[in-house]
């Protein structure tokens, strides 16, 4: 079951086109990475889903229903440009934002207490936002995003402004929310921060979607039977038997090599071949990171 | 609707609890009431002070001209001028009026010596006495006797009767001007004070970056209207508190100083013409008669209407300006076209007064941008009902139009950061689809 289906979304502004025929399927209870360089159109797509702006053409479905104002209550959105009323007290501010999302006062108050305790912020409830540190403000902002228990949580550059300790805290909370049934969309241009968390990704570049699918599938499709080997003794001179891409001397007689296996050969046969020439200490398949795929894909487009 | 209500509550609640609101609410009446009470206190104090003026009349023409009044006592002196000047310091008189030998056709050299300046009131009093006396002398010279002269003097008090709507009413231009000016200025002030608050509120939301969080829950238009209505409620609360507090401070001050109704009546009497008690009473009666002749209900209802509709018309424009800029400083260029019609309306009030039913007054009270200020000046003088209704309808239309225009700019503007905005960009936003 897909919680979100977007089909052939098109959006243009006066001077440029922000989205060109973008289609996406986001499975329920997944952590979905919406990746792409700055200005690619990620924020525009999110703003269409959160109904801040309207699409020119195309369709959006939430759990099979055409996007409508009711869906606002099911979505929690943490924008990249985010902030809070500086002169408002933490508790009042959360209550206001929760009530705008349709929670009753009582319900909202209970959940605020629950979350403030959970993130260890209870003693700050009566303080003005401007008296809080930046990290604490981010925590409050996160609470505001998830208070109404949205089924779809959209986080635009969620970890900017967090110190590593708080970033980890928030990561754990996100995993917990997913376990409870929420779907999370991460929008970011910093691949390394989401690579470990996402199970699905889509790459957007220059208003087009250039890649999407499950993280594992994408990475598998970029495997090219290449291995990293650490070994004693040089492979130079045996070049005929191996497709040696590079070899680097670590120290004395130790080397690290990148080797492409011959077409149709299994890793075992490569290893067997190697054993005949050198002493192997380390043997691992070289799978490209999302970051590498991302860079190569984006550059591909630039060179076109 | 429920969401707009939440926004109104927040806008109202946070503002009313602010220190600046409480300070202004308390200081306002203290200032108004204080100034008002002080001026009355000064007036009562002044009237009890009697100043003595020595008169040195070398011409001998003014032997009986100077008669004592409530505030001025005259004593004739026979000393020489230098002696008399010396005398003033010793006797404690306020000043010395010196009249040399003069030719009544060319009176020159009349001088007033005093330590401190005589002030406009005293100067004109003295001038009037001398002028009248010289006039009498001239008339006598032309062989017109005093009795003929007295019978020539005529005093006319033009009674104004308005016959609008088929009924005759007593009219009092002075009172109308007072009421009209007060209503117009209140509307003008309210629009500027609270319009600017709307703008600052929008800029604050923009610069604190909370806007995108909010508009993922509510429509930009709801947010804009909620803010405008919430701030209107703040303004109304403040005005109401001011009226109540001003009245209390004023009353309190009056009792403290000991000015009761009787002395007030006496003061009216002094200021009123002639100083005759019965005449003053008649005047008082006339004023209250005129007051009751005014259609108070119509006046109040139209005031409330123009007050709110004018504010709403401009409020959305202020919101649009706030949404287009990143800081207070950038707002200047867009403030001008909003302020101009309002300032023009206030300036034109003088011209409107000259002819409250002329074509200038008519058109200015029809154009929605100026009508709230100008129409309130006209209404005390009586405006045909169809004109009021037409003006109100146009104002409502204008309000809907500006709100719609402002809404279109607002929804785009609030998402824009660090964009250099000029009128061409605003035009683009206006046309942009969502």
Strand order, biggest sheet of chain B?
2-1-3-4
Proportion of strand residues of chain B? 5-15%
- Helicity range of the residues of chain A? 25-40%
What is the spatial order of strands in the main beta sheet of chain A? 6-7-8-3-9-10
What would you say the CATH architecture of the largest domain in chain A is?
3-Layer(aba) Sandwich
Estimated share of beta-strand residues of chain A: 25-35%
Measured between the Cα atoms of the first and last residue of chain B, the distance is 21 Å
Specify Rg of chain B, calculated over alpha carbons. Answer: 30 Å
Number of helices of chain A: 9
Question: Pairing-aware structural class of the strands and helices of chain B?
Answer: alpha/beta
- Biggest sheet of chain B, in brief? 4 strands, mixed
Q: Specify the helix fraction band of chain B.
A: 55-70%
Count structural domains of chain B.
2
SSE string of chain A, helices as H and strands as E: EEEHEEEHHHEHEHEEHEEEHEH
Q: What Rg of chain A is obtained from the alpha carbons, in whole angstroms?
A: 24 Å
Low-pLDDT segments of chain A: none
Overall pLDDT score of chain A: 87
Distance between the termini of chain A: 36 Å
- Class by alpha and beta content of chain A: alpha/beta
Oligomer: heterodimer
| Greatest interface (CB-CB under 8 A), with counts per chain | A-B, 29 and 23 residues
Word description of this protein:
The complex is a heterodimer of chains A (304) and B (434). Chain A is of the alpha/beta class and 304 residues long. Chain A folds into two domains: 2-220, 3-Layer(aba) Sandwich (Rossmann fold), CATH 3.40.50.300; 224-285, Alpha-Beta Plaits. Helices cover 32% and strands 31% of the residues of chain A. Chain A is built from nine helices and 14 strands. Chain A has a six-stranded mixed beta sheet with strand order 6-7-8-3-9-10, with helices on both faces. Chain A has a four-stranded antiparallel beta sheet with strand order 2-1-4-5, with helices on one face. In chain A, strands 12-13-11-14 form a four-stranded antiparallel beta sheet, covered by helices on one side. In chain A, helix 2 (90-100) packs across helix 3 (105-118). Chain A starts with a strand and ends with a helix. The mean pLDDT of chain A is 87. Chain B is α/β, with parallel strands linked by helices and 434 residues long. Chain B has two domains: 50-148, D-Maltodextrin-Binding Protein, domain 2 (3-Layer(aba) Sandwich); 172-431, no CATH class. In chain B, 68% of the residues lie in helices and 6% in strands. Chain B is built from 16 helices and six strands. In chain B, the strands form two sheets. A four-stranded mixed beta sheet of chain B has the order 2-1-3-4, with helices on one face. In chain B, strand 5 (160-162) and strand 6 (169-171) form a beta hairpin.
